[in-house]
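COMPLEX REQUEST
Ligand: iron/sulfur cluster
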Amino acid sequence: MSDEIYNKAGNIIIKAGMLPFPITDTLKELLKILYTREELEFIIRTFKRKKSQTIDELIKSSNMDKEDIIRIIEPLTDKGAVFKSTSSSGLVIYRLLPPIFIGIFEYFLMKKITYSEEEKKVAILFEILFEEIRDIIQDKYEMFMPAFSTVPPIDRTIPLLKTNVGKDIKIEINQEIDSPEEMILPKQDIAEIIKSFEDIAVGHCFCRQHQDLLGHSCEFNAPREVCFTLGKSARFTSEHGFARMITQEEALKLIEDAAEAGLVHKVYHPQGNISKEETSICNCCKDCCGTFNLWKKGTMPMINWSNYLSNIDQDLCVGCGTCVERCPTDAIKLNDEGKAERNPDICIGCGVCAHFCPENAISLLEGVRKVFVPPPRIKL
Ligand code: SF4
Ligand code: SF4
Ligand code: SF4
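STATUS: Structure written out below.
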């Protein structure tokens, strides 16, 4: 396959996402493994100008007949390279997906892994691609940061409500949090979100499975089957074998298990727009979560909606360090007096610290916040 096809298709596939990055040899290698030549040619023919199209639009843009289009595009949906949905008026829409930040990387690793040689190779190549993107971001740090600061939050944190011994985590209203005026966040209770959907599917955690394939097993042994898709996304992921449909009861049980394990609940909205209903729920661990790790490694900012901020009662704190160890964003340190102190700028209000604190010394202060933390400057 000539390089030309990778360059052309790679360009179109990258543009389907929000993060621009150059076509590297690693990306070309991934395209070679994950797509057939016919699929890449089809992408070049059809998706150059518009990333979401109906069948009629695809017929026009590709100059192919419907039968041929379906024969090529359906396998692309089965590999998570194209998203297929049905609009409220019944129109089927195909949307080209990017390689990463919700695209073929996530869908490929949402299916239960078998540890095949191909899976391992793809996992390594994606890891290299993330490193390459980190180097580009670090090289042009000043150029990327202003653009990042205008990006809507990627996810929204939903707090844990119970400690690991089943006590309620104390929640207090706090006027000191500088909330944007008239900003009210949607549902704050993960069970309420689950209950508001008829269609729920669960798939495997692509971050933990990515780490599994790289030979790193989750330090917290967090459950793998905890990635929920909701509504339209649930129908897509279940119909294409990335996840399985479950009942509300089963979803509530799995969410309860994730909360007991002290995982961070994060919900996602279309284009980060929280006035639109949730599309998916993640249950993340500090060790494997891509969002936390890409931020810590200097690749991406952490951009999050939160309605809470942790609050540590210094009189109750005995300085055991559990919260320091568990906080997914490393927002807590022990001070000179050996007491826990939290940095408000990087707290996402997840309640993990309160969940694990053996002294019940941590409560959550209520108030809407957008958390934006640029990635650290890394010496390459
Ligand atoms: S974001 Fe969290 S739950 Fe979702 S795949 Fe990554 S670690 Fe797993
Ligand atoms: S877990 Fe609780 S007691 Fe331990 S350091 Fe943190 S706040 Fe203090
Ligand atoms: S301090 Fe850390 S663990 Fe506690 S709520 Fe904030 S981000 Fe979560």
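REMARKS: The longest helix spans residues 117-139. The longest strand covers residues 362-373.
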